[in-house]
UniProtKB/TrEMBL annotation:
Cofactor(s) needed for function: pyridoxal 5'-phosphate
The family this protein is said to belong to: Belongs to the class-I pyridoxal-phosphate-dependent aminotransferase family.
Alphabetized UniProt keyword annotations: Aminotransferase, Pyridoxal phosphate, Transferase
An individual GO BP term: amino acid metabolic process
Class of the enzyme per the UniProt entry, highest EC level: transferase
Keyword Ribosomal protein among UniProt keywords: no
Keyword Transferase (UniProt): yes
Name this protein carries in UniProt: Aminotransferase
Organism: Roseomonas genomospecies 6
Length: 384
């Protein structure tokens, strides 16, 4: 009798439930039924015009080979210039690493900074891939239960309660799924706490640029030891181009480079070359942000009329995180019901908070104004 080959336990992690919702929505559409997409954090717009023009030129003139593992010099320089112009902070080009999306950045950063058995803290609720990626590489995710009283963000008080100690802390401002942000003072205090404790700070900044009344602060401004992760997928509206970047502290640059060489070789060369033009497209991109702001206003005004009256502040990003305790204690079944009865796809909170997410739902307002307005009308009618 033959013996079954080994199957690694690394893949024994929970699914990314939003992808499950996307699949159910696609099946509904394939059956000829309408879907209003509020489940995925993806701009409904494509890449800006300047990026598309640069890509066409590249396709006509270049063989699209490998690049250096850390990225092409022109893009690394453009990213450093973005920090200089937008944040007034000098970031040496040698510390800029171009990655295959922010997902590639997190993989490289986690592998370079942490060893199996280390403990890395993060707010709960938070982006599920933090937990799942850390678990897959043998690092223990440590969730900090946060609520409205913490504005769904980690605090030093919560960190001081942890025992045994942690080796890393992930912060996200604006955060997914809540949209809440850390002030300059709060981020500075967390960075100082990490430096004093020898804890590696990882700052997820992929929703920078998508803020409503409060400017986002980069950890590159307040800490030289932080790993800063950003992406072209959100503000720059280039989700499918699979391109992100990291600002890497000096003590991790060589580790990240060797890991990138072996795991990815390089980020896509076409995406890299075209993305240089993205930094000159801010007028077009800020127009998208203005639309998100209008969508946000619609949902903050209309969702309470549908019974969704306990909402996270949504300072940034393009999400509304709603407490639905009075409607259900099974957010997954609740979202399936909403999709079946209204055609609106939204994401159950269990994706972001395994312990308490059964009482929460996330709505994305990254879609068109028509989609968001119609979804609000349907939810109000459904509730009645």
């Amino acid at each position: 009798m033959s013996k079954a080959p080994k199957v690694s336990k690394r893949g024994a992690i929970p699914p990314f439930f939003v992808m499950e919702v996307m699949r159910a929505a696609a099946e509904r559409e394939a059956a000829g039924l309408e879907v209003l997409h509020m489940e995925v954090g993806q701009p409904s717009t494509g890449a800006p015009k300047g990026v598309l023009e640069a890509a066409h030129r590249m396709l006509d003139a270049d063989v699209l080979g490998y690049t250096g593992a850390l990225g092409i010099p022109a893009l690394r320089a453009a990213i450093a210039g973005w920090y200089r112009e937008r944040y007034k902070v000098e970031v040496p080009e040698r510390r800029v690493v171009v990655t295959t999306g922010s997902s590639g950045a997190f993989q490289l950063g986690f592998l370079a900074a942490f060893d199996p058995g280390d403990r890395v803290a993060m707010a709960s609720p938070s982006y599920p891939a933090y937990r799942h990626t850390l678990t897959a590489i043998g690092v223990e995710p440590v969730e900090l239960p946060t609520g409205p009283e913490h504005r769904f963000q980690p605090t030093i008080e919560l960190l001081e309660r942890l025992d045994p100690p942690i080796q890393g802390l992930i912060v996200a401002s604006p955060a997914n799924p809540t949209g809440t942000m850390l002030s300059r003072e709060e981020l500075t205090a967390l960075a100082a706490w990490c430096d004093a404790k020898g804890v590696r700070l990882v700052s997820d900044e992929i929703y920078h640029g998508l803020t409503y009344g409060q400017e986002a602060v980069t950890a590159a401004e307040v800490s030289d030891s932080a790993l800063v992760v950003n992406s072209f997928s959100k503000y720059f509206s280039m989700t499918g181009w699979r391109l992100g970047w990291m600002i890497v502290p000096d003590d991790l640059i060589r580790s990240v480079e060797c890991l990138a060489q072996n795991l990815f070789i390089s980020a896509p060369s076409l995406s890299q070359a075209a993305a240089v033009a993205a930094f000159g497209c801010t007028e077009e991109l800020d127009g998208h942000v203005a639309r998100y702001a209008r969508n946000r206003d619609v949902l903050l005004r209309e969702l309470p009329k549908a019974g969704f009256d306990k909402l996270a502040p949504a300072d940034g990003a393009f999400y509304i995180y709603a407490d639905v305790t009075e409607m259900t204690d099974d957010s997954e079944a609740f979202c399936k019901r909403i999709l079946a009865e209204t055609g609106i796809a939204c994401t159950p909170g269990i994706d972001f908070d395994p312990a308490r997410g059964h009482r929460f739902v996330r709505f994305s307002f990254a879609g068109s104004e028509e989609t968001i307005a119609e979804a609000a009308r349907r939810l109000i009618a459904w509730k009645r």
